[in-house]
Design brief:
The chain has about 90 residues and is α+β, with helices and mostly antiparallel strands. It has a domain at about 1-45: YefM-like fold, CATH 3.40.1620. It has helices at about 10-15, 20-30, 50-60, 65-75, 80-85; strands at about 10, 30-35, 40-45. It has a three-stranded mixed beta sheet with strand order 1-2-3. Strand 2 (about 30-35) and strand 3 form a beta hairpin. It is elongated.
Length: about 90
Amino acid sequence: MTIDTNTMISITEANQNFSKVAKVVDEHGTAVILKNNTPRYLVIDFSKAENFTHEEKEKVANSEDVFAISEKLIKQNIEAYEVLAK
């Protein structure tokens, strides 16, 4: 996920001025709240929440893909697996 620095707000500022958080979300679609200078919370426009979670789900591989990739890696590295199995 790419974070726009214009959407970053400290947790202290968010606690003292939540209307600023809402304004950032209205302007940019999201706001990132920092705790100890680290991104900790994501505030998104409720109307965009379904699209956001749908996009995140698309990044997850299905079981068949994972199984196929695993089989391919095992075949490519069979000698290493045999040594490790000893």
